[in-house]
What does this fold into?
Amino acid sequence: MAAHQIIRIPILPFGLVNAHLILSASGCILIDAGLPGSESKVEKVLARHGLTFKDIKLIVITHAHVDHAGSAYALRELSRAPIVAHADDAKHYSRETPMTFCPTGWFGRLFIKTPLMYEPYQGFVPDILLSKNETLDLNRYGIPGTIKHTPGHTAGSISVELPTKDALVGDLVASGILLGGLIRTSHAKSPPFEDDPHTVGLTLQRLLDSGMENFYMGHGGPLEASEVQRHVHALMTKKQGYHAETNG
It folds into this structure.
């Protein structure tokens, strides 16, 4: 086996919603948990690689939107793996505070009128809660790499950075059309919702400056650094302090 494999888990087909596994000879980490009821989809991909839920050593939830955190509680029960997330989204994970959504364009404004983003999921308290700019070394879970705070999409968004110059960034960037995926999956764009596009631009630029070359995301992708850089330029040419349209 190579140093690691990054394997897409199709939560919805055509790259519309993705979770990922990072596999190595000594570790298996799940990045995001998909919509509620996604356990069988995770199980199917694990089985394809000769693994079961019990082989998952860590569950990383990049942010608190339902398509990333929806099955976290159930997958923790099945795997007994700890969940890591960031404190700035903690009240959303526990369902103490409902999510708010900032549309980035016409599709986000339309999509927010559907029930999908407000679909309830089983609340949970992360076992490992990062705060501020705290990082987590993944070597203890068999994967060389680091989890870092990467705000902008939500206040508590986190990403996985690997020494192979691969970054798994949740919804910091998307590709494709509408929600993401389908076609034009090599073309970077903002996801339907984004708390602060300027902060996203700064965060993505930090990842690029650190040498990241391949970006894996929740909708569409993966993307090469040059395309992410083009997207960053578009974000940063917006007026500083610009925020996406707020809802409510």
